[in-house]
Amino acid sequence: MKEKLLEIKAKALSLLSDDNCDVEDIRIKYLGKKGELTAVLRGMGQLTPEERPVIGQLANEVRADIEKAITEKKANAEKAMLEKKLRSEKIDVTMPASALKAGRLHPLTKVQRELEDIFIGLGFSIAEGPEVEYDYYNFQALNIPENHPARDTQDTFYITNNILLRSQTSPVQVRTMEVQKPPIRIISPGRVYRSDAVDATHSPLFHQLEGLVVDKGVTMGDLKGILELFAQRMFGENTKIRFRPHHFPFTEPSAEVDVSCFACGGKGCRVCKGEGWIEILGAGMVHPNVLRGCDIDPDVYSGFAFGMGIERIVMTKYNIDDMRLLYENDTRFLSQF
Ligand code: DAH
Predict the structure, then answer these.
(1) pLDDT tens, residue by residue, 107-140
(2) How far is the CA of 306 from the centre of ligand 1 (A)?
(3) Candidates 175, 248, 287: which one to mutate for ligand 1, based on the most atoms within 8 Å of Cβ?
């Protein structure tokens, strides 16, 4: 039994002296519950009373020696790992500093500028209006009197009874027509507000781009022509547009306008949800009441207007499925554009 114990010790220590050994394996093999040393100790019952304490003491020494070797081995391994880590993380202060990362435009800004470029190319100029607006411009002058049901869909934030955060860019139409007589050809991009809860497709703050053309003899054919040119420049030259009848209080007739899907060309795909068409804006012929309210004679002049959500264009163009990504300022998202 004594020889057996010494043999176990010699074998265990020799295995542990190998730099690539698996320490845990060795521990289980020799010191574990089913290990070799334990097996020897189980046989102690067969020894004579004289032998038992001698062998017992030797067994304890063998266990202690093996344990000590294991502890040392583990400590050495940890030390080596730490040294390796420190070596790999060493900073060479004589190396040139890493370059500053250049910023980039937010996708909303990018698309807004693209839209502006297209319409400026079509002869439009940019008009601006306040975000804190009178009820008069946001609603009344747009043929939406108090208690009109169209106000329901554009509930917004009120500063006082007649001052609010504009719920659309359409008030800029009225402000423009009040100070400028036809011919008028403007777009107006900017922030708008609605008291909507945040979700994947809603935000209390978003962006629109309004368009307005007023002159003698302006027809719906002109509206269609301009929107077709716009759609082709924005989404590709083979893009088609489609008008669907709709109602807006400030235009008559009114339409919702779809573009053929730029991803599949109209066959139906994931981007257009199988429709082949993507709704992008509302439009129509400026209502005579709106012209009259701005002192423009509807018997002499006519005009068209359109309004689109910039977020919707960004999300369609880049296939983004959650609007919140546009406002969270996560550079992992933003650096993709
Ligand atoms: N202001 C409308 C909205 O927020 C969009 C719109 C529709 C604007 C038709 C227009 C228009 O100028 O003619 O839903």
Answers:
(1) 999 999 999 999 999 999 999 999 999 999 999 9
(2) 6
(3) 248
